[in-house]
């Protein structure tokens, strides 16, 4: 058999333990052979495409195990206020957007921890910037919205609106809403905005794909995908317009997933519907992560439980009985305990590959429970390098020792898969590798790394984006390594992430990706 494609690289990092190689031959979307260019040249036929990238190192296709595909495209299309250093700076962007269009102004990215005072804003700056247009901006972590007066009015949110379970309407001393709503209260505002059409969702997905390829990714695990998103993904895949592997974890809060749940898990080479995503709590940055003890810098609260107790146990049992993989968002240590209790009650075993998404603060005893039950930790290294400025202030000196504790989790025997949680963070897999190994941000801060004893080795970090993601997606038999018969999904990098000095990971760049044997250069 002649190859359809032969990729020649400076080096092939196969993660199989095989002898060094510098070429990979591909036929019908699968790896035909891995070896020396001089040997594989015999597989070149008259129709064989040769991709000569001797300037690059080929590694298995990097997969982000926690990435919001549609959310990334929506962020690209909507107002992006990421990095704004004050409420006034956000308002300036809103004012410009208000002058340029009509209808709701939707956006994302504000982060009050970057401002002079780490406290939630009020609606007033947004109301002044756009008095006649509803404004709804999600916080950087996606666990709070900031609305103006027009949006509050459109949604009917007033001083008399009851507090939803698992959410909070932030109020002033008189009980009036200030404009910030947390977690389960967010749909009060967002539900008042016009629902996106399939055409809009399609446009968002198509905008996200080049960004993901440029980030070095050949696939994503999409936690919290709605039935509409799945419909769009499947339509694009049927057209051959989805050059990205998607492992879907359905959004439990979307009533429209009922037919998908009834149909049961649906493996597929492009859009695999295998799991369901639940929310155990909120996020640490908005004090919504559910903790066993009060926040060190907000002693009046332990955070926000969302799905917990008997309701969580019932959902886990019901979805598990249908064969679905459970993926539960749990950032706080109390949330992690509750999730493990529910998993244990349902008889979790390693074959289930049930997941704790984020596993950000997990007590040592619960780390051991995760290992015993085979529960996977889906962690995002760049969260640690973004949060190091304020996380210890939230948690105090004791809890911080088992927060963002990747090495401790691994030492306990917990399987790790790595991701970005984009668009909360940039989707860059290179940034994830760097953060996992150095525990430093893009500016090299903090010096020496943040709690560097919890860093991963370069090999562990690379495996987290390849082998670990494949295991978490039930695909280790055909993805995560470069081996004969495996899917021809590769990432081409400027250097070898296993051998460069850790500091040099900051300069690693993506040349492009190969997905199912097709080359997609980074743009």
What does this structure look like?
31% of the residues lie in helices and 23% in strands. Among the domains are: 1-61 and 480-523, Urease, subunit C, domain 1, CATH 2.30.40; 73-190, Diaminopimelate Epimerase, Chain A, domain 1. The chain has helices spanning 37-40, 69-77, 87-100, 124-129, 149-155, 186-190, 198-214, 227-238, 258-263, 309-321, 333-345, 364-373, 381-387, 391-399, 406-412, 429-438, 458-464, 467-472; strands at residues 5-12, 21-27, 30-35, 49-60, 62-64, 79-80, 105-110, 135-139, 144-147, 167-171, 177-183, 217-225, 245-251, 271-279, 325-330, 355-358, 376-379, 416-418, 490-493, 510-515, 518-521. α11 (333-345) links the parallel β15 (325-330) and β16 (355-358). The longest helix has 17 residues, at 198-214. The relative contact order is 0.14. The mean pLDDT is 96. With 523 residues, it is an alpha/beta fold. An eight-stranded parallel β-sheet has the order 5-12-13-14-15-16-17-18. The protein is globular, with a radius of gyration of 23 Å.
Based on DSSP secondary structure assignment, what is the total number of beta strands? 21
Question: What is the CATH architecture descriptor of the domain at 73-190?
Answer: Roll
> So what's the CATH class of the domain at 73-190?
Alpha Beta
In whole angstroms, the N-to-C terminal distance is 33 Å
Q: What kind of sheet is the major sheet?
A: 8 strands, parallel
**SS element count, helices:** 18
> Portion of residues in helices?
25-40%
Category by helix and strand content: alpha/beta
Described by the principal axes of the CA atoms, the overall outline is globular
């Amino acid at each position: 058999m002649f190859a359809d494609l032969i990729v020649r690289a400076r080096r092939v990092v196969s993660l199989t333990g095989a002898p060094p190689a510098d070429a990979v031959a591909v036929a019908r979307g699968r790896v035909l052979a891995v070896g020396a260019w001089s040997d594989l040249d015999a597989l070149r036929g008259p129709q064989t495409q040769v991709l000569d990238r001797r300037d690059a190192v080929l590694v298995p296709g990097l997969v982000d195990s926690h990435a919001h595909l549609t959310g990334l495209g929506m962020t690209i299309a909507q107002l992006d206020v990421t990095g704004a250093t004050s409420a006034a700076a956000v308002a300036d962007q809103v004012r410009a957007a208000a002058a340029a269009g009509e209808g709701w102004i939707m956006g994302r990215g504000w982060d009050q921890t970057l401002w002079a005072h780490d406290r939630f804003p009020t609606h007033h700056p947004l109301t002044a910037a756009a008095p006649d247009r509803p404004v709804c901006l999600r916080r950087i972590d996606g666990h709070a919205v900031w609305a103006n007066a027009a949006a509050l009015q459109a949604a009917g949110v007033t001083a008399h609106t009851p507090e939803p379970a698992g959410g909070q309407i932030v109020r002033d001393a008189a009980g009036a809403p200030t404009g910030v709503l947390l977690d389960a209260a967010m749909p009060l505002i967002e539900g008042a905005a016009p629902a996106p059409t399939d055409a809009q969702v399609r446009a968002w997905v198509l905008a996200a794909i080049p960004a993901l390829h440029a980030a070095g990714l050949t696939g994503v695990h999409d936690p919290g995908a709605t039935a509409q998103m799945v419909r769009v993904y499947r339509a694009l895949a049927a057209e051959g317009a989805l050059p990205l592997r998607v492992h879907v974890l359905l959004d439990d809060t979307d009533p429209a997933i009922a037919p998908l749940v009834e149909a049961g898990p649906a493996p597929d080479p492009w859009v695999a519907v295998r799991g369901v995503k639940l929310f155990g709590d909120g996020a640490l940055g908005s004090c919504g992560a559910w903790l066993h003890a009060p926040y060190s810098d907000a002693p009046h609260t332990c955070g926000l439980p969302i799905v917990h107790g008997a309701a969580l146990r019932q959902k886990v049992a019901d979805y598990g009985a249908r064969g679905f993989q459970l993926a539960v968002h749990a950032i706080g240590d109390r949330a992690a305990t509750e999730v493990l209790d529910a998993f244990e009650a349902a008889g979790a075993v390693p074959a289930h590959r049930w997941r704790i998404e984020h596993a950000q603060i997990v007590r040592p005893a619960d780390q051991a429970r995760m290992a015993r039950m085979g529960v996977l930790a889906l962690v995002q290294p760049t969260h640690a390098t973004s949060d190091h400025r304020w996380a210890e202030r939230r948690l105090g000196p004791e809890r911080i020792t088992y927060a963002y504790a990747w090495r401790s989790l691994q030492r306990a025997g917990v399987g790790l898969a790595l991701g970005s949680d984009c668009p909360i963070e940039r989707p860059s897999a290179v940034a994830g590798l760097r953060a996992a190994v150095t525990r430093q941000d893009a500016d090299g801060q903090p010096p020496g790394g943040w709690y560097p004893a919890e860093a991963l080795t370069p090999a562990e970090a690379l495996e987290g984006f390849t082998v670990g993601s494949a295991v978490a997606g039930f695909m280790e038999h055909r993805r995560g390594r470069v081996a004969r018969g495996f899917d021809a999904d590769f990432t081409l990098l400027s250097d070898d992430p296993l051998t460069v000095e850790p500091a040099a990971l900051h300069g690693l760049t993506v040349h492009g990706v190969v997905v199912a044997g097709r080359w997609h250069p980074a743009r």
